[in-house]
Design goal:
By secondary structure, the protein is an alpha/beta fold. It has helices spanning 5-15, 56-75, 95-100, 107-114, 134-147, 167-176, 190-196, 214-217, 241-244, 251-267, 280-291, 307-316, 325-334, 345-353, 368-381, 387-405, 417-423, 432-473; strands at residues 22-24, 27-29, 43-49, 83-89, 118-122, 152-157, 181-186, 203-206, 231-235, 271-275, 319-322, 338-342, 360-362. Helix 5 runs parallel beside helix 6, helix 10 packs across helix 15 and helix 12 crosses helix 13. The N and C termini lie far apart (73 Å).
Length: 476
Amino acid sequence: MEMKIGEMADKIKKKGLKESVVALSGKIKQTIEPKDKNSESVYKILLLTNRDSDNVGDQVIEACDIALIRTVMRNLNVKSKSFKINSRAASIVSSKYLETGNKELLSAAEKSIRESDIIIFGGAPMFNYAYQNFYERTAVTLELAEKYNRPVLFSAIGVEGYDENNEKCQRLKKTLNFDCVKLITTRDDFDALQRYKHNSQLEIRKVSDPAVFTSKVFENYITKKKNVKKKIGIFVLRANGFKDNHVDFSKQDAAKLWIDLIDKLEYEGYDYELLTSGHFGDEAFLDLLITKYGVKASKCVFNMNSPERLIGKISSYDAVISTRLHPSIISFSLGVPSVGIVWNSKVSYFYESIGYKERTITVEGITSEEIVEKVEQALVQGINKDKQYLASVYESLFLGVKRILCPDENGMTSYTYTEIIENIPPYKGTSQREQEEKIKRKFRRTYRKYNDLFDKNQKLKKQLKSLNSQKEEKPL
């Protein structure tokens, strides 16, 4: 993307940026010189995550991403007053724009991107095109970044497959190979990520999830275990979670599994709790287990609406059994052994990455006996951590930011794992205002789901009435 000399001068005057006019594949490469410590201008970092999700695991990712970015900037000798992180939801491109294509609905997103120096996508399945619209939000965001020549980094993204014949997948692939995209790292399907790449200048890597730093970032919210008996946390998944991911396991199958598991744990002398990581669909299924299947309400934990509470709960358990991925990652970080029920390939990828692939179970032929056996093995073995693997998400983020902000500073090297731990800032907690916003979003999703189901039910009633009328009008 070419930039006129006048525009370059204007940018230098307004933002204190240094434009390095370097020919690269016939285009102009933008680099940014670190601000003077006395300068009032600051680097503006736009962080895009799934922060608006009521799945608290995504909120943990956001907090860890922010902490890692702050550590990178300290590593680069950039003072805290010289940069600002604008943390926004990946839905910065609104659903109404996706529905209508009305350019006016894109103005806010365009402004945020235009005013940013770096755009970082952090965590979450931004490539998901199977049954969500993340892919289109990502593609539109990249089109805007390319338009304004804003460098983009993808850090520890969930990559859920690649399909050469899928138009949505190919739409995403085209934008991922824009010149504005400098680095893409994934926490899981690196083979699929390789198939997305065709720009030789684009660097890709396999890294850890940012939530592996949970134990340090959320150290002030860890609960000391006070269990008389060993206590197991069981994270359930929404009713259609398996089916949506093409796994032949119904809500009836899942309910039976959890009931059998409860009986087995009680028989073996374990205490337990059933809970979720906050998704309203997961909590709806948890309520169904109480009302329809007789699970004790006193053994169920609802209203998981903040990272602090999730960390507090997981750290109080001796082991975790989870379908959702991030309770497993958080458990790993906190040193709590876990067993993963596979409903999505990303579960398998994570356990394989940490060296505990045997602690996953597919639902085909699954039994409560098998789950408990794996839990007991994990309790005996504990958890070993590879510091090089843990640091990989930080190292790649450091490399990407350094190449953009200070490419000529060859003497700067990434912190070691020990130095990361020494410098990473702790989470300051969820404010009352943030808490209210999280709950409001969650309730509104629930209301929309109810309204959608009500409309669908009314439509089906009309169709049934019409069919009955037609039947009555037909002569015998």
